[in-house]
Structures are given as C-alpha cells and as structure tokens.
C-alpha cells in the first residue's frame, strides 16, 4: 500500500496524523482482504516492510503486510 501527500499540514494537521491514518488504513485493508477470500478472522499479521519519508511539506509512505486468515466455524455438538 502506498500513500503520498504534497502538503501534510493542510491535509492532515501533522506528520504524525498522516502516519497514524496510513497504518490504520493498511490494517483495514488487510481485514477487507480477509473478508474477500471468505475468512472471518485475521489471526495475526506481520508488517514486512515499512518505509516512511518526509521532505519539507511532502510525505510518502509504503507498507507491506502479510497475515493469516481463518474461517471460523460453529460445531453444534460442542455448543
């Protein structure tokens, strides 16, 4: 996932808000991928790569996430 802005303070108030929103969006995307493959739960995830760069008012972020999706089932015999 990649996110870029040319004016951090106008769009996000601060660089910390930009990075926080970026990671939150990445985790929501991971959850959406779990649902897309028919899973019910994201059991664990790993941030494989995280690249953050800032230059004056510009900011650039790249993240790569992998994880385990599971399909949870209900066994009526076990309650």
Automatic annotation (TrEMBL):
Q: Which residues form the C2CD5 C-terminal domain?
A: 1-71
What domain of life does the native source organism fall in?
Eukaryota
- Which Pfam family is one of this chain's hits? YbjQ_4
Signal peptide per UniProt: none
Q: Any idea what this protein is called?
A: C2 domain-containing protein 5 (C2 domain-containing phosphoprotein of 138 kDa)
Q: Which organism is it from?
A: Durusdinium trenchii
